[in-house]
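Quick one, T. Sequence first:
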Amino acid sequence: MQALFKIIFKSSLAFIAGLLIVSSPIAQAQVKNVRYSEVVRSLFYAPAYVAISRGFFKAEGLSVTMTTAQGGDKSVAALLSNAADIALVGPEVAVYVHNSESPDKLKIFAGLTATDGFILMSRQKIVNFDWKMLKGKDILGWREGSTPTLFLDEVLRMHGLDPQRDVHIANNIAVPARVGSWISGQNQFGIFQEPDVSTMERDGTAFAVTSIGKEIGPVDYTVFVATDKYIRENPDIIQKWSNAIYKAEQWSATASASDLGKTLQEFFPGVDEKILASAAQRYRTLKIWKSTPVIDPQAMNKFQDVLVHGKVLDNAKRVKFEDIANMDFARKAK
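Structure tokens:
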């Protein structure tokens, strides 16, 4: 009995010591705070929300505060003004900043999406779609010069249509007003992201025609970036972030659609859980999300092709992959 008492006593001391260590200032200091800016709120970025909701960031010792910038330019401004540490944006921002006079440059260190996540929608169901059906039609696009518009233009050119002459693309509707504009009867076609796609299909106000990403193929579309200075001074945080994103991408690829819907609910409080599950399954089937944060240089070259074709990047100002990207952290995470 005395021996048993000693064992219990020692175990209790070890447990109490463990609690003291966990709650000590030293342990608390190991938690790193990260100010994170996402470009917009979209189910397109589901693995990033998974990393938050499923505790993958927390497991790496990161405390993440997320804000939604409502524009890549605003995310970049936040990074360069030290109002944010890490941002989720299109890779074009790293190209633009590299070519600018800004003394601070941005580096891409991990990828999230494997291609464009927009879906071309129509007011009627179309069984045998042909891109020539768009000739002379009005299409609800995105902001002029934005990546979604550039990729839509690229796909139109791939199918023999001139974006400037053969169709009319409406680029003047603010992001929050796009669905309302569509419901009011404007345009015959439009590009939308999830969960708007599944919601409109359920309501019978629009029907999915084809995926822009499927048409254009693999090209890293959304990436995590930070300033050169932040990466240089905080390599441990960048590595932990990459580790968490890799785990989230792997989980998103294998979880049930129902579990995905439940996990994403807190980020889309007004959307039915079944819609979120359906939307997530659509993106997974289309292979929109990356399975690893590593980015292939060829995918970035293809992205710059789109920028050049869209006349927002001079061919002479194309940048080398190593000048705007550092894949060391992503490779270690994999």
